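Field reference: sequence -> structure
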Amino acid sequence: MNSTEKTYIDEFKSYLSVERNFSEHTVSAYISDVVSFMLWLDGFDCTKVDFNKLREYLHFIQRFDYKKTTIARKTAAIRTFYKYLFRERYIDNNPSMSLAAPKKPKSLPKFLTPQEVEQILNNVKIDTPAGFRNRVIIELLWATGMRVSELSSLNFGDLNLEENEIRVFGKGAKERIVLISDRAKEYLKQYITSARSLIASGYDIGEINEKSPIFINSTGYRLQNQSIRNAINDVVSKIELPKKVTPHVFRHSFATKLIENGADLRVVQELLGHAGISNTQIYTHISMKHMQDVYNTAHPHAM
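Structure field:
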């Protein structure tokens, strides 16, 4: 790439981070996608690209064994890039206006039954401060439907335990309130009063204030998303649960159980922090699928 194209990339990255407020992961993916596209252009001026050139690139990447979701993301990255160039008047026309990505395959999210969640919780070893912390984390994921990034970002100022409420900041830094069960609250209170100060033994973690992280690691710093994933993987691998379990699976399980028990879709949308109701509606399909499976298993004339 030449110096002008590098400038475009740098400015586009700032636009995604600051103005669009995309996550660090999404920004990194979009930049990588656009850089790959420019390398494919092999010196051809990116501001001279037309719709046919973009279609040619899409045909090129479809030769590889990419998932449809990956191709859809690469298409979205290019569309966003050219939308930005047009907005900044680097180009007179936006060639990506009619660029269509392949439709994403519709698949139902995986979820756990309440019995499977309890099996996981009961197998968390809580005889160490870190083990007790991990139990609390899983309790909260199951009780609130929080994203793992939302949970790891929690500070003491976000807690309102008297009202069983926690403030979280979701995608796009959107603030919402999630509710917690009495059981999850009691575990959280025990962790705060007993286990938290013992996790970073030998380190000065300072006085607790509103900006102090709730969940910390062995050196007293904020617990990271990957550490939470590792803790869950460690428990699940030992009980040989025949499902892939991630922090997000607890979110799906939370939403599915609410829908199965008759919760209003709008309420579930608010608790999950979905921007649109269509993202929440998929859980009604999960619930129906689950009911069909139970019917086929339990009814003598179902098959």
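Note: The first strand starts at residue 159 and ends at 160.
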